[in-house]
Specification:
Layout lengths: L2 H66 L29 H16 L5 E6 L4 E3 L15 H8 L5 E2 L3 E2 L6 E10 L5 E10 H10 L7 E5 L5 E4 L10 H4 L3 H6 L2 E5 L3 E7 L6 E7 H55 L12 H36 L1 H52 L8 H32 L7 E4 H18 L3 E6 L5 E4 L1 H17 L5 E9 L2 E8 L33 H11 L3 E6 L5 E8 L6
Parallel strand pairs: 13-15
Antiparallel strand pairs: 1-2, 1-6, 3-5, 4-5, 5-6, 7-8, 7-11, 9-10, 10-11, 12-14, 15-16, 16-18, 17-18
Helix pairs in contact: 1-7, 7-8, 9-10, 10-13, 11-12, 12-13
């Protein structure tokens, strides 16, 4: 199958997979998206309706407050006003004075100008009760005991809204807006208020429209239905509709509840505490989902078709054709072995890179082929003259070897001669310095003794340097002969400690010695072992300013281990490799603090190696150092 056909089949499978995924995943995601969108829109509209309702109640409160400020309404003289304290339906007759009639006219005008108000009334502290229109039944009635009167009395100076209540004179459920009446001295003389019936409130809700085509409902903070299109629901409990969702509805400010066939989207009025909601049928959400899916599928199909056409055209020019050309060239090279082929490299991106790499590979193979042919010719010529070349190289190596051996012999002879020639006058200097220091040739003053001591120390230091140079030269020349005899390691350690004790005492360092029982003897040169330990102990004391220096010996099978430990300055990890190199020191430069030639540890390692042992070091800056010497035990003394 050609590449173009494979690409077409791949695009068809991808398009089919995309459509299947859209059909499976999209409905659930769109359902939540549309539900969130509808709920956000609905709750926003409910807030607007709540704002209008709150404004409506606020305007009614303002109008009642304005009514309470009327001079005739707040007149303190209420003698002769109608009261129903002992009224009887059979015997009661209205007897309205002119002053009371003026107040009734004011109340009637207010009710006429406010179509949502069902009744306007006034109660007085003497029990009088004046209404905009006569009561339907003149039964006994004391306004001072009514909830609206008590509410206003408990909130002087404000306009209060009562909880919904059943009217005594009518079958309606009212919401009262009341405020206290005070005379000019500020003394409360009564309460004036206006009722808005639930019927009128429902009509008001109807005028502001519906949300998402659903029916609206209004309840108080306790779930009592205050307004609904279904008049039979008024003043019933919302629990009859919401069932087990009632608690959620009453305890949350806003949200969405899933009912049997609809969603209830609701919001709580911040000012009134009432809850206003709308029922949105499931069909509304499903309709939106179907419309969204159809639009998305249409766009996806068009996008896939357009993408497929554009992609196939681009792939044909940028991928398929260049790959086909490279395939043809590679097939021709494989069949004929002819590397002189024209390879186009004008493409861009990975295909262009592939073409250029293929061309470079062919050119490299061609160059390697030419190189192999040239190398083969040179190899044949070299083979013919190989014996002559080997003989020439052998003669050159022999001459170089003789020159090196001669130079090494000259170096050894020079070092031995110079060491002997230098040690002779140095020994004389040391000897004569000692005689002068003992004042055998005459008394010396303090300054002369000091200078003479410096001469003696410098001579001894130079003699030690010459001895070290002589030792290292003998070791390198293979002329150093070591004894192989049993050596009592405890005796050697004792001697070294006695020798180093004055130096340790001078620096006030504790010098400790530990020799494990059964350490026994080692096989080696006693003088050289003592030289190694003296060097290690001398370094430990030199680089330790306070604390202690310890030397200990233990035996493990056929090896004896000697450790020299100090509490000195320590050595950095990167400097450990420098320790055993000739003329190499950790502290270098013109301002170095500690003197030395850098030969001592190098000689120690070579001496220990010659005796079949080893020497290692462990150290850390500020924590001291531990040098470990391991020597073979004397098997005959084991």
């Amino acid at each position: 199958m050609k590449l173009r056909s494979r690409v077409l089949i791949l695009y068809f499978c991808i398009a089919l997979l995309v459509l299947v995924l859209i059909g499976v995943v999209l409905p659930s995601s769109l359902h939540k998206q549309n539900l969130d969108s509808v709920s956000e829109t609905s709750i926003a509209q409910l807030r607007h309706i709540d704002f209008a309702l709150s404004r409506f109640i606020a305007e009614a409160q303002y109008d009642v407050l304005e009514l309470s400020l009327n001079d005739k309404v707040r007149a303190a003289n209420d003698t002769g006003f109608t009261n129903f304290l002992n009224a009887s339906e059979d015997t009661f007759r209205y007897s309205i004075s002119d002053r009371e009639q003026e107040i009734i006219d004011i109340l009637q005008d207010y009710q006429t100008s406010h179509p949502y108000v069902s009744s306007v009334y006034m109660g007085r502290e003497n029990g009088a009760f004046v209404r905009s229109y006569p009561r339907a039944r003149p039964t006994a009635y004391d306004p001072r005991d009514r909830p609206w009167y008590l509410l206003a009395k408990e909130h002087p100076g404000t306009v209060a809204v009562t909880e919904p209540y059943q009217s005594v004179t009518t079958p309606d459920v009212n919401i009262g807006i009341v405020t206290p009446l005070t005379d000019r001295n500020g003394t409360m003389i009564g309460v004036i208020g206006a009722d808005i019936t639930l019927v009128n409130l429902t009509r008001y809700i109807s005028t502001v429209g519906s949300v998402e085509g659903g029916e609206m409902i209004l309840t108080d903070r306790n779930g009592t239905i205050l307004a609904a299109r279904d008049q039979s629901l008024l003043f019933s409990g919302i629990g009859d509709i919401l069932k087990d969702k009632t608690g959620t509805f009453l305890s949350t400010d806003e949200g969405v509840l899933v009912l049997n066939d609809s969603y209830l989207m609701y919001s709580t009025s911040p000012a009134l505490g009432w809850k206003i909601g709308t029922f949105v049928p499931f069909s509304t959400i499903e309709q939106r989902i179907n419309e969204s899916i159809l639009r998305i599928l249409l766009f996806v199909i068009l996008a896939l078709l357009l993408l497929s056409i554009i992609t196939l055209l681009v792939l044909d020019f940028t991928v398929i054709r260049p790959i086909a050309n490279l395939t043809g060239v590679s097939r021709k090279i494989a069949e004929t072995g002819d590397l002189d082929q024209t390879i186009g490299t004008e493409g861009a991106g990975e295909i262009g890179t592939l073409a250029r790499s293929f061309r470079a590979m062919v050119e490299k193979i061609r160059a390697e082929k030419t190189g192999r042919e040239r190398a083969l010719a040179e190899l044949e010529a070299y083979r013919d003259h190989l014996e002559e070349i080997v003989a020439e190289r052998t003669r050159e190596l022999a001459v170089a070897k003789e020159a090196a051996e001669s130079a090494d012999r000259l170096k050894s002879a020079f070092l031995a001669t110079m060491s002997h020639e230098l040690r002779t006058p140095l020994n004389s200097i040391i000897g004569f310095s000692g005689i002068l220091g003992q004042e055998l040739a005459g008394p010396l003053n303090d300054e002369q003794k000091k200078q003479l001591g410096m001469v003696s120390e410098s001579a001894e230091h130079l003699l030690a340097l010459i001895n070290d140079v002589l030792d290292i030269s003998k070791i390198e020349a293979g002329q150093l002969t070591l004894a192989s005899e049993p050596v009592d390691i405890a005796a050697v350690i004792d001697k070294v400690v006695r020798t180093m004790q004055p130096l340790a005492d001078k620096k006030r360092l504790a010098l400790e010695r530990t020799v494990a029982p059964g350490s026994g003897t080692v096989r080696g040169d006693a003088r050289r072992i003592e030289q190694v330990l003296l060097n290690l102990m001398s370094n430990a004391i030199k680089f330790t300013e306070s604390g202690r220096v310890t030397i200990e010996s233990t035996r493990n099978d056929d090896r004896i281990t000697i450790r020299v430990m100090d509490t000195g300055i320590g050595i950095r990890n990167e400097d450990l490799d420098k320790l055993f190199r000739p003329f190499s020191q950790v502290d270098t430069g013109l301002t170095r603090q500690y003197e030395g030639t850098g030969l001592g540890l190098s000689i120690c390692r070579r001496l220990v190696d010659l005796m079949g042992g080893s020497i290692t070091v462990e150290s850390a800056p500020g924590r001291g150092s531990t040098f470990t010497v391991t020597l073979p035990a004397d098997r005959g003394a084991a």
